[in-house]
Structures are given as structure tokens and as C-alpha cells.
TrEMBL record:
TM spans (from-to): 7-29
Subcellular location: Mitochondrion membrane
Full protein name: ATP synthase complex subunit 8
MF-aspect GO terms: proton transmembrane transporter activity
Lineage of producing organism: Eukaryota, Metazoa, Ecdysozoa, Arthropoda, Hexapoda
Main localization, broad class: mitochondrion
């Protein structure tokens, strides 16, 4: 069986690393979070905290 030269292993490693990074970047930036406009309409009700020491 023929063996691969070290430069071929390195090139294969580079290709798979770039493919992994590209896949991760595409997955990360394809998700668009919803805008926080819905939180502006809903006010958070805070009850005053009366500490009794």
C-alpha cells in the first residue's frame, strides 16, 4: 500500500480545518436573534425589598 507524504497529510489537515471553521461560522451567523422590542412593551414589576435585620 502506498503511503502519503507528510505534505499531503498537512494539506488534508488544513482542508478539513478550514471546512470545520467554515461550517461553524455559517451555523453561528445564520441564526438571527429576535429583536428586544418585545421586552420594551412588557415592564418588569419590581417589588420593594424590605430587609428586616
Amino acid at each position: 500500500m502506498p503511503q502519503m507524504a507528510p505534505i499531503s497529510w498537512f494539506l488534508l489537515f488544513i482542508v478539513f480545518s478550514v471546512a470545520l471553521l467554515l461550517f461553524n461560522f455559517l451555523n453561528y451567523y445564520s441564526f438571527l436573534p429576535s429583536s428586544p422590542l418585545t421586552s420594551l412593551h412588557q415592564k418588569i414589576e419590581q417589588k420593594p425589598l424590605n430587609w428586616k435585620w
